[in-house]
Design a protein that fits this description.
heterodimer, A: mainly alpha, 7 helices, 73% helix, elongated, B: mainly alpha
Chain lengths: 162, 159
């Protein structure tokens, strides 16, 4: 089943496209680093304010950074999918990749939790005041999860494959 | 034995090069520091260039402390990584470009920080950001992009 999937990915035109020019991989790596800088830099501002730091930043104004979060995530989703299609056998069975993938899913759930439990209420909070415990938990979880995504991603070449 | 070889054979250099987790742990720390310093400076530079005007420049300025903490982490992890392969890095063109770009980017960030310290509050009250500051912010973005690309190329081109 896993092997059939790997063989299917390895037989796609995308796999050929990623591998046919030797510089494609390093260009994708550069894009992945640029994307993570945009994503994590924007999230640092948003989440640290949500935790209660940098109170001079109005809570609602941090929404204006969301486009950069999505640009960074979009760059890394695209480059990441291309990495996977270029070398499916390596990533599928790599424990670092598996943990990273699970953590990204968890970050998505955390973002959903923010949207459901926090986002609407933020209008009523003191824009330059401290934040409720739930906001601190969700903001803190976001930073811990995303920095863990970064660390496990960086460890992919150095951890066991299966 | 040259100084650089002595570094490689030092206790730290030997640990980084031979312990199973030394090198990956330092690389992981180096990526965390990168995300902090480049991430914060990306955000600050985009703000200087006019993005997310709802956050005052004088309030964004406070995040620079965190960016410097990221830089300290990467200076420390970078020095440890360098020591382990000092003779390899010192002649590597991509490494030299990376270090040059980072040196300029740090000077640039210090200049931006100094300008904002004196002007951010008045620019927030309705003045527009000076052209000089926007040029420095654009240069900052380009220098960090150069550092990232050159850093990646270390693994791909010959020393």
């Amino acid at each position: 089943m896993t092997e059939a999937f790997i063989n299917w990915v390895a037989g796609t035109a995308i796999n050929t496209w990623v591998l046919e020019w030797s510089w494609t991989w390093v260009i994708l790596e550069c894009l992945h680093f640029i994307g993570l800088s945009l994503l994590l830099g924007s999230l640092l501002v948003i989440d640290l304010r949500l935790i209660g730091f940098f109170k001079r930043i109005p809570l609602l104004a941090t929404h204006q950074l969301l486009p950069w979060v999505f640009v960074g995530f979009g760059i890394n989703l695209t480059s990441g999918v291309l990495f996977f299609f270029g070398d499916p056998g390596r990533y599928t069975i790599n424990i670092g990749f598996q943990i990273k993938f699970a953590l990204i899913a968890l970050a998505g759930l955390n973002a959903l939790w923010f949207y459901i439990a926090i986002d609407k209420q933020m209008h009523d909070w003191d824009q330059h005041g401290d934040t409720p415990a739930l906001a601190k938990i969700i903001g803190g979880a976001s930073l811990i999860i995303w920095f863990s995504v970064l660390i496990f991603g960086r460890l992919i070449p150095y951890v066991g494959t299966g | 034995m040259s100084f650089l070889e002595a570094l490689e054979y030092s206790a730290l250099g030997d640990w980084v090069a031979t312990s199973p987790w030394g090198y990956p742990a330092l690389l992981a720390a180096h990526s965390v520091g990168l995300a902090i310093i480049v991430g914060i400076l990306f955000a600050l530079n985009l703000r200087i260039l006019g993005s997310f005007p709802g956050i005052k420049l004088d309030a964004m300025r406070g995040m620079l402390k965190l960016a410097w903490a990221g830089f300290v982490l990467n200076l420390a992890s970078g020095v440890a990584l360098f020591i382990a392969q000092a003779t390899f890095f010192i002649t590597h063109p991509a490494f030299l470009v990376k270090i040059g770009a980072i040196f300029l980017a740090i000077v640039d960030a210090a200049l931006i920080q100094n300008i904002l310290r004196h002007n951010a509050a008045s620019w927030d009250k309705g003045g527009s950001v000076s052209t000089k500051t926007k040029v420095l912010a654009t240069a900052s973005l380009l220098l960090w992009l150069t550092a990232i690309v050159a850093g990646r190329l270390i693994a791909y081109i010959e020393s």
